[in-house]
């Protein structure tokens, strides 16, 4: 939505004539007085007047487009506004201020209210409760909805995910956009949109395999989507990460993802031992600190489990390699890991 | 040999210049007045510049006008209270450290405000009806700790929420599920330290993730995996290590190995050589011309590198900064003074509890 450009400032219009703006009371001689523009101080003066009178009106609502989030949310509720139109306005705001905490949160509140207004009888989460993807209960159980309700919800989720995808095109690592995306996915329960998330992250990773936000999102989708990580998920994701590592062994993201998925699925890191040792014969992989770091982890686990002196030695070699050759900025960390290895109780 | 020097006088002049007139370009910070006060005072404090009486008086008056009638501090006069600006206002007043400054804070309404943003799952929203994230936990607990209004209701489930923010990578995100990020990691860890619950994290992945944020080429830190180096993360990531050092010590590491986790020389060099501006102030990276007032962040970061465990200063000996508290982020002597004021006779016990001696020098 293109915001109307208007040459006349709002406060010169007749509907504002009765309002007396209240100047800012900084007290005498304040620290860091900001050289506000006239426009800014006047606007804030009118806003203070609205707040003091607790005025609930159209003109106050218009003013909050310029000024503030919470007051606006109360007004939208009080005045029973069409929330879909509000979403259009937010879309425009997000384009202008993609990194504003408030504007993304505002959208979350509005979409939460839309969800509640669609099915007031079954929605469990009051939309005014701030929630995060994993701390919030889903608003309802998707599978319990009627076919018509399911379609309505799917349409709403789809349009939100598309809206977020647009913002992510501008900045693929926009933290607010990703946070809001997780909230949308989780808030509407276990619907079919979760499966699309795998394809979406795969597409982003094709464009930029180092996009760690996309890897994180994939982890979120895989571990939450079907109500938990299944054995099938683990196998598929391990394969996915491995093939990414084979192409770009120096990329940290798939390495952390791989070990993260194994840990979450209660698999031992030693299961990828052959894979890592195999990479050592690939020249460019041999220089990757992550190959050696993972081997260090693997040999350390082996040493502990089998009380094996040979594994301790292998682990030490990797730590030395990391500290002295391939990752010397972290030499203190790797040398510390080496001292940890001394403490392992091995069989005589 | 070329000697790296922290140009203290230049930085002091830069900071003092901002006090009487902030340019129109800072209008964006109009909702962050307490932050401006805190940054200015903290920067002067770290540089060892005695806060002049007139500045103290003006800060007190400015913050008095910003305190909300319903508790806490907003961004400016008449603005709604916000947890982050409340944190900044209380730190600014604690830096001044006089009875007049302490008396500005209405502890009764502050408690009401903090409880009004506390959620059942242990998280805090940034403002009433605002967004949840782990910054809220840190800011709320820091403000409550300094002013002695911590209650079981305030801390219930707080550590559990923060632990859920730890991701598979090892660092913490803004809330559960979201990507690990150095800013949120510092906030979450510092909050856990205030709660005495750092043991709730996975220590191995946390240590590895933190160490991995230092960049091989530049020596500076990135904030997330595969992102670029930035001076501000010298503060956020650098701030993790003093607390992490203590966690490892508790987990049975001996003193000798505590100075291990990152390359302090590398980071100091990055800050001194690449981030100092000719006109005073510190910046994110050399390519940035426009300075955003991050001077105290850079200075604090420099301090992290200098004074953990045993002092280690790169370049000129005059680069030494004053000692700061790694969790509350105001000077150690100012924390002690504030505690003596707010806790009375119990102060010494509390000082021990929040591990004020964490930094030895």
TrEMBL record, chain A:
Recorded superkingdom: Eukaryota
Protein's UniProt keywords contain Transferase: yes
Protein EC: 2.5.1.58, 2.5.1.59
EC top class named in words: transferase
MF (Gene Ontology): CAAX-protein geranylgeranyltransferase activity; protein farnesyltransferase activity
Family according to the record: Belongs to the protein prenyltransferase subunit alpha family.
The protein's name in its UniProt record: Protein farnesyltransferase/geranylgeranyltransferase type-1 subunit alpha
Organism: Linnemannia hyalina
Gene that specifies this protein: RAM2
From TrEMBL, chain B:
Keyword Lipoprotein: no
Enzyme Commission number: 2.5.1.58
Cofactor annotation remark: Binds 1 zinc ion per subunit.
MF-aspect GO terms: protein farnesyltransferase activity; zinc ion binding
Cofactor: Zn(2+)
GO CC, alphabetical: protein farnesyltransferase complex
UniProt KW keywords: Metal-binding, Prenyltransferase, Repeat, Transferase, Zinc
Boundaries of every Prenyltransferase alpha-alpha toroid domain copy: 6-330
Recorded catalytic activity of this chain's protein: L-cysteinyl-[protein] + (2E,6E)-farnesyl diphosphate = S-(2E,6E)-farnesyl-L-cysteinyl-[protein] + diphosphate
PANTHER family linked to this entry: GERANYLGERANYL TRANSFERASE TYPE BETA SUBUNIT, PROTEIN FARNESYLTRANSFERASE SUBUNIT BETA
Protein name (database record): Protein farnesyltransferase subunit beta
Species assigned in the record: Linnemannia hyalina
């Amino acid at each position: 939505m293109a915001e109307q450009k208007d040459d006349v400032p709002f406060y010169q219009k007749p509907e504002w004539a009765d309002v007396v703006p209240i100047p800012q009371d900084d007290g005498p001689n304040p620290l860091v007085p900001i050289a506000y523009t006239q426009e800014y101080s006047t606007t804030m003066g009118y806003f203070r007047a609205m707040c003091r009178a607790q005025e609930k009106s159209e003109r106050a609502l218009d003013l909050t487009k310029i000024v503030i989030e919470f007051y606006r949310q109360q007004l939208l509720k009080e005045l029973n506004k069409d929330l879909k139109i509000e979403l259009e306005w937010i879309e425009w705001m997000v384009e202008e201020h993609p990194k504003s905490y408030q504007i993304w949160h505002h959208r979350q509140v509005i979409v939460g209210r839309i969800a509640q207004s669609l099915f007031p009888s079954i929605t469990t989460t009051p939309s005014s409760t701030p929630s995060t993807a994993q701390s919030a209960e889903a608003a309802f159980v998707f599978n319990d909805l009627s076919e018509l309700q399911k379609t309505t919800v799917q349409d709403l989720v789809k349009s939100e995910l598309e809206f977020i995808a647009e913002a992510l095109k501008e900045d693929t690592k926009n933290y607010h956009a990703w946070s809001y995306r997780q909230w949308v996915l989780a808030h509407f329960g276990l619907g079919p949109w979760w499966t699309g998330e795998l394809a979406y992250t795969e597409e982003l990773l094709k464009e930029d395999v180092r996009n760690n936000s996309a890897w994180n999102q994939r982890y979120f989708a895989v571990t939450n989507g079907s109500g938990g990580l299944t054995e099938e998920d683990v196998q598929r994701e391990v394969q996915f990460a491995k093939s990414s590592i084979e192409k770009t062994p120096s990329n940290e993201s798939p390495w952390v993802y791989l070990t993260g998925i194994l840990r979450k699925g209660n698999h031992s890191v030693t299961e990828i031992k052959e894979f890592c040792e195999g990479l050592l014969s690939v020249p460019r992989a041999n220089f990757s600190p992550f190959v050696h770091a993972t081997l260090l982890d693997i040999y350390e686990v082996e040493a502990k489990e089998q009380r094996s002196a040979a594994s301790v030695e292998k682990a030490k070699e990797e730590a030395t390699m990391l500290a002295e050759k391939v990752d010397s900025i972290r030499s203190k960390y790797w040398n510390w890991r080496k001292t940890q290895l001394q403490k392992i109780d091995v069989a005589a | 040999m070329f000697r790296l020097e922290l140009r203290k006088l230049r930085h002091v002049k830069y900071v003092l210049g901002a006090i009487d007139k902030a340019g129109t370009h800072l209008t964006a910070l109009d909702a962050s007045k307490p932050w401006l006060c805190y940054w200015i005072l903290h920067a002067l404090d770290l540089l060892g510049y005695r806060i002049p009486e007139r500045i103290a008086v003006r800060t007190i008056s400015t913050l008095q006008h910003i305190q909300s009638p319903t508790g806490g501090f907003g961004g400016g006069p008449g603005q709604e209270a916000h947890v982050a600006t409340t944190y900044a206002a209380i730190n600014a007043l604690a830096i001044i450290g006089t009875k007049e400054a302490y008396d500005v804070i209405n502890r009764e309404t502050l408690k009401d405000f903090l409880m009004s943003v506390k959620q059942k799952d242990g998280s805090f929203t940034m403002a009433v009806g605002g967004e949840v994230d782990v910054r809220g936990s840190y800011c709320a607990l820091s403000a409550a700790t300094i002013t002695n209004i911590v209650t079981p209701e305030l801390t219930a489930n707080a550590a559990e929420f923060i632990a859920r923010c730890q991701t598979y990578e090892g660092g913490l995100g803004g809330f559960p599920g979201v990507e690990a990020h150095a800013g949120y990691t510092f906030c979450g860890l510092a909050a856990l330290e205030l709660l005495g619950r750092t043991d709730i994290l996975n220590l191995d992945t946390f240590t590895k993730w933190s160490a991995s944020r230092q960049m091989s080429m530049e020596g500076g830190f990135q904030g997330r995996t595969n992102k670029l180096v930035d001076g501000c993360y010298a503060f956020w990531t650098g701030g993790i290590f003093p607390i992490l050092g203590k966690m490892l010590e508790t987990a049975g590491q001996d003193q000798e190995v505590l100075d291990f986790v990152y390359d302090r020389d590398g980071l100091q060099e990055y800050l001194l050589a690449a981030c100092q501006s000719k006109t005073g102030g510190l910046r994110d990276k050399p390519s940035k011309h426009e300075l955003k007032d991050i001077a105290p962040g850079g200075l604090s970061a420099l301090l992290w590198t200098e004074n953990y465990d045993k002092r280690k200063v790169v370049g000129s000996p005059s680069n030494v900064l004053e000692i700061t508290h790694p969790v509350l982020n105001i000077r150690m002597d100012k924390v002690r003074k504030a505690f003596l004021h707010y806790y009375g006779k119990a102060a010494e016990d509390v000082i021990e509890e929040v591990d004020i001696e964490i930094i030895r020098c």
